[in-house]
Amino acid sequence: MSKIARFWDRHAVGYSKRKVTNEDAYQKKLEQARAYLTPDAEVFEFGCGTGTTALNLADDAGHILAIDASQKMIEIARGKARDQHKANVTFAQDEIESFVGLGKQFDVVMAHSILHLLKDRQTVLKQVHELLKPNGVLISSTMCMKGIWPWLRIIVPLGHFFGLLPLVRFFRPDELLADIQQAGFEIEVSWQPTLKEGLFVIARKKAPD
After folding, report:
1. CA 19 to chain CA mean position, Å
2. Do 140 and 87 meet the contact criterion of CB atoms below 8 Å apart?
3. Fewer beta carbons within 10 angstroms: which end of the chain, N or C?
């Protein structure tokens, strides 16, 4: 089990009880995501946590495969799926860096509150590009904290070293957008409710030249 999986296993129950900080913005993100889904859409989500977003969008897609590094997060997500009778969502324990997809490609890939927690987001974005069908779409929401809370640049690495906090990468919204474009995507939607909230992005896989 990886260090990050152990960390999120310890925090899974508490995470599952957290409230959405900006419900209006979250609902707007869901509505914009729904516009890119179809009843037969094959969707993949990584870093799904306890499955809230996957389950909220389940009725709008054909099937959603959602993974998370934490087995305990996945167990909670599966329980929620049973309680909500969402049979078209499959939750599995895995990390995006080791996910192979078994040759399958998806119409939509979702990455919510995860890109800033990756060791190498540029490599993962290229991996996502390969996982998408031609004309497929990446939908993400990401904390871009560079320059907002300077004191976190000291506290977070120390907390991570002692196992108290996850790995966190600091970057600006324009840097993330550049990474997404560099990976082969065209940005279709980009907005941020406030500077201290996640940058919501919908980006389409570029057609071959």
Report:
1. 17
2. no
3. C
